[in-house]
C-alpha cells in the first residue's frame, strides 16, 4: 500500500490490525514479526485499547512501534507511538526505533521488565513517562506505559520510584500533587467541617451576641424573648448595640451536642473506603514525568541493570549531571589566581567484556570488586567519581597537582597486575590524566572537556 508520490525509506512491514482476532495471524505469519503495527477501524475504542495492551505486554511485541488510526484516550496515546500519519512518516519512525533497539540485548529484555521499560524510553528519543489523569480511577493518575508494559503486574508508581532511586530514571516536570487516603490510597476525598467536640458534621454558622452586663456570649436566637433582646444568662435587657451588647464574629453551633465554637475542625472522609482522617494525616503523592538517565542508557546498552561497573559506584559516586557541575566550578576556580590545581583521571577497562566472556559474569564481578576495593583505599573523601555512558570511570581530584596525580595514576595502573588469573588473563586498566590549570583549553567547559577526554 504505497502512498502516491511519497519516497519510501524502506519497505517496512507495518501490520494493520483491525480487531483482536487479527493478532494471532500477525504474530505467527511465516515472515517473522512485523516492524510495527497500525491499530485502526476497531469495533470500539475499548478494542483498540485491548489490542494495544496485548502488544505492550507481549515478550516479543512490547517495544514495537504502534500507531493509532482512530480516536484514542490519553492513556492509549501515552502507551503508543502516536497517531497514524503518512506511511512515509510511520516508516521513518519505525526504522529509527528499530535501529535503536538493535543496541539492546533481546534475551535480557525478555527476562527483565526494568530493562524493557528503560529500553522503550531509549528507543524513542526524547520520550518521557507521563502520568495521565483519569478522574474516575482510584488514584486519579496512572502511568499507562508502565502499566501496559508490565501487563498490570506492577504498582507503577512504586516501580518508577524504585527505578528513580537506582538512578535509571531522572525527574522531569511535576504534573500534580495530590492527597490520598492513608488507608486505601484513594484520592477521592470529601473535606468536611466538623464539631471539634463531638465530631458531628451537623454544625451551623449562626450570629452570636455578647452581653456587656455579664460578659457571656451565646447564639442570638437564645437572646430573643417576645420580640425584644434579653440575656438568657443574667436577664439584662439589651436595647442598644454598642452600649448593652455587641456581635462578636459569627460562631458555629453544633446541632448534635449544642456546643459553640469559633472554628470547626476539618476532617477527610474517603469516598472509596469510608475512612476518616485528619487533613495532616493524609498521604501526599507527587506525580511527575520521568526520562531516561545516563545510567539508564548504560543499563540498556549493557543489557544489565546490575551492571558490571556498578561496583565503582561506591567510590564517592556522583551522578553525571552534578559531576559536570562540580567540574565546571573547578575549571572556573583554576582560572583565578592563586590557581587552585586539580586533576581529572579517566580509568577504563578495554577488555572487560572479553574477560567476562572468558571467565564468566561471577568471576569478572569478583575481579572488578577487588579493583574497586583497592581504588577505594587510594582515593580521598573529597575525590568524586562518575561514570560515562561508555562505562569509563571518571575521577575528579580536587587540590591535586601533577605530582599527586602521577603517583595515583601509577598506583591504579599497578592494579592491573593484581587481576592476573591463573591462565594469564588480565583485566586491562587504562588510565588517562589531565592536570589543571596546565591542560586548560580556553573556553572549554565540562561538557567539551569530557568530549575531549573521550577522543
Ligand atoms: Zn458537637
Ligand atoms: Zn448577661
Ligand atoms: Zn480510603
Write structural notes for this entry.
- The protein has 14 helices and 22 strands.
- The chain is α+β, with helices and mostly antiparallel strands and 455 residues long.
- The protein is flat, with a radius of gyration of 34 Å.
- It starts with 13 loop residues before the first strand and ends with a helix.
- One zinc ion binds at residues 181, 183-184, 186, 270, 272-273, 275.
Features:
binds zinc ion, 22% strand, flat, disordered N terminus, Rossmann fold, 455 residues, Alpha-Beta Plaits, alpha+beta
From the alpha carbons, calculate the radius of gyration and give it in angstroms.
Answer: 34 Å
CATH superfamily of the largest domain, called what?
Answer: Reverse transcriptase/Diguanylate cyclase domain
* Strand-residue proportion: 15-25%
Major sheet: arrangement of strands: 20-21-19-22
CATH architecture verdict of the largest domain: 2-Layer Sandwich
Bound ligand species: zinc ion
**Protein structure class:** alpha+beta
What is the number of E strands? 22
Q: What distance separates the N and C termini?
A: 46 Å
What's the structural domain tally?
Answer: 3
What is the fold's blueprint, element by element?
Elements lengths: L13 E4 L5 H6 L7 E4 L5 H13 L8 E3 L5 H6 L7 H15 L4 H6 L1 H11 L8 E2 L7 E2 L1 H6 L6 H10 L3 E12 L8 E6 L8 E4 L1 E4 L5 E3 L4 E2 L2 E2 L15 E2 L4 E4 L5 E2 L3 E6 L5 E3 L4 E10 L1 H9 L17 H14 L8 E7 L3 H8 L1 H18 L5 E4 L5 E6 L3 H17 L11 E7 L9 H9 L1
Parallel strand pairs: 1-2, 2-3
Antiparallel strand pairs: 4-5, 6-18, 7-16, 8-14, 9-10, 9-13, 11-12, 14-15, 16-17, 19-21, 19-22, 20-21
Helix pairs in contact: 6-9, 11-12, 12-13
